[in-house]
Amino acid sequence: MSFWTVVDNEGGFLPAETAARELPYQLHEHVRVCRSLTELASARELRTSIRNLPCVELCLNDAEYQRAKHGNLRCVNLYEAPKQEAAFCVFSILASGYVHALSAVGRDEEEGSDPVEIPVSVAVPLRKLAMGVGRLPIMDYAACVLANWKIIDESRSISLENIDILRSFTNLEAEKWFYKIHVVIEAYGGQAMTAIFKAREMAKQAADKKMKYLVQDLVPLAKEVNACLKRLAACVRMMKLTFSRMPERCKADDFYNIVRPWLGGWPAKGVVYGLPTEAQGEKPAPQTLGGASGAQSSLLPCIDAFLGVPYAPNDGSAVCPGMKKFVEQLQKYRLHMPIEHCQTIQTLEKEDSIRSFLSRCNHVVGIWYPSKMDEEMESSVEFRESDNSQDGSSEFCIDSLPMVHREQQRMEALKLSLELHELKKTYNLVVETMLSFRRMHVGFATMYISREAKALASTLGELDGAKVLEKAALGTGGSTFSKHLMHHIDDTRQCLYKIRSPPVREIDVEERLQLEVEPEKSWYTYGIYEALQDHIDKLSNFFGTASEDPNETDVDLMF
Asked: Which residues does 161 contact at the CB level (< 8 Å), separation at least 6?
């Protein structure tokens, strides 16, 4: 199993195994500087300490290590994925520490200065590790959250009290608590992904069914999908409950003034990654990369793709109003994600969302009971065009079925209409829970960033205060986060179905007994009873006019 496998992984986007807790002895000096980052920065010694780190040669596969190890004491064996992720986190901390050494402790660099150049001892290993893990050479969400924790008690499940963070910039409880919150959210997200994968399989089964046999097969599939949606709603609710605990140990002023500066991306003037002496020639161009951000998580994009939230189209051609400039930013975030995570998002985006399954159910109900079809639900043109008979030569015709078969199918269609009503309610529950989660996110962004930035700006002059507000308007990932989050809310809200009254009313116990219906068959309704009665009347009329010759039978009445 790959380190970042999503399918068949109960942890979802959390890795099957966490990053290594210890690194080889050749990197102990690098780890020591990481642990003393803020102290060295406050003493204005951080950049000097990083420049003095020894250069090491990282080997990301065993063959490379066997070739390089002879006589090379600085050759480091990192061909195991957990060690690569741990080393990537360490060197990312060192790179961000070097770049933000002054600004993170309240000392702005001189205007008009040249781009910061990361020393060779950090730049070269970081670039090689970035190629090895398939991401950009800067601290990202996967490095500081997804692979940066350990469980304390293996006999207990993941919780805020049962995990610890392996590496951080500041070693403060506020920073570690911030990461822990996201780890536990991702753990609940693993259960959400399990529900999504199962619902997707049910929807695929429905898409493979031929029209002639579809109605009776759709009812149990609709029940399964409904159960998956309920589990998904419960998971998102637990994600929100976990998120709500952020202020317990991560105060807004600590996050904004101490933690957030280290997580930022490269400044507008860019950053140069130093090259070894033998490779120096033309100086490489400065790079501007976004820093670690929750937007680099694959969890919410996958849930959105499953629900059919329209903000991220498959081909970029039908972008919702106001979202065009954000689609490019969303694609940039994926460069910071593990490759397997990107592939999972792309797979869900290319496939039909769960709304297509609901549309299919709605269309089937409309075939048998046009009056019960919800015309406001999106139609499925591809589905209608494929509704041919088994040989594909002519369109499926209800009247071609035997009468008894038709009435049975009508009863199944009524049951399906009830399930569809419940499906829409549960789908809306998931969407509303996602809306609630996103509103909380906006609230926290305002409390932890916007409000703190305004408080800081009020203590500065007009020009410096304006710079603080301008910088705070950008998230650590490089986007204008407030507009981004609000667009997410608007697009999610568009997905809500308008719920009408139930298509048929359930019969209560006394009515069921009065109608001599078996008590355990709770799916019987007035509508189904009327269909049965209509079917009985038709049979009575038929046998009343039929020939008395027992050899004369109507083939259409046979199953």
From this structure: none
| Cα distance between residue 90 and residue 35, in whole Å | 10
Residues 312, 318, 322, 327, CA torsion sign: positive
Whether the CB-CB separation of 414 and 528 falls below 8 Å is answered with yes
**CB-facing half-sphere around the CA of 485: CA atoms within 13 A:** 22
Distance, in Å, from the CA atom of 170 to the CA atom of 46, rounded to the nearest integer, reads 13
Please tell me the pTM assigned to this model: 0.83
- Structure token pair of residue 199: 């619902």
In three-state secondary structure terms, 59 is strand
Do 495 and 501 contact (CB within 8 A), yes or no? no
Q: What is the torsional sign of CA 35, 38, 43, 49?
A: positive
Q: Dig out the tokens for 66 from the structure.
A: 């066997």
| The two three-digit tokens of residue 392, written as one number | 């594909």
Phi (first) and psi of residue 452, to 5 degrees: -70, -35
Closest to 296 (Cα-Cα) out of 146, 177, 163, 184: 146
CA distance 335 to 338: 8
CA angle at 288 for the pair 283 and 294, rounded to the nearest 5°: 145
Q: What's the N-to-C CA distance of the chain in angstroms?
A: 49
In angstroms, the CA 13 to CA 158 distance is 14
Joined tokens for residue 51: 């420049």
Nearest Cα to Cα of residue 20 among 74, 81, 65: 81
- 3-state DSSP assignment of residue 326: helix
What is the SS3 assignment for 407? helix
CB neighbourhood size of 360 (10 A): 23
**Exposed, middle or buried, 137 (CB in 10 Å: 0-12/13-18/19+)?**
buried
Interatomic CA distance for residues 412 and 430, integer angstroms:
27
Q: Could you tell me whether strands 149-151 and 163-165 are parallel, antiparallel, or unpaired per DSSP bridges?
A: antiparallel
pLDDT band per the 50, 70, 90 thresholds, residue 279: low
Q: How far apart are CA 351 and CA 531, in angstroms?
A: 37
Q: Tell me if 125 sits within 8 A of 87, measured CB to CB.
A: yes
d(CA 477, CA 141): 10
Residue range 403-454, pLDDT digits in tens: 666 777 788 888 899 999 999 999 999 999 999 999 999 999 989 999 999 9
If DSSP codes are grouped into helix, strand and coil, which group holds residue 155?
Answer: coil
> Of the ranges 127-136, 228-237, 522-531, which one carries the lowest mean pLDDT score?
522-531
What are the two backbone dihedrals, phi and then psi, of residue 442, each rounded to the nearest 5 degrees?
A: -60, -40
DSSP-derived secondary structure letter, 378 = P
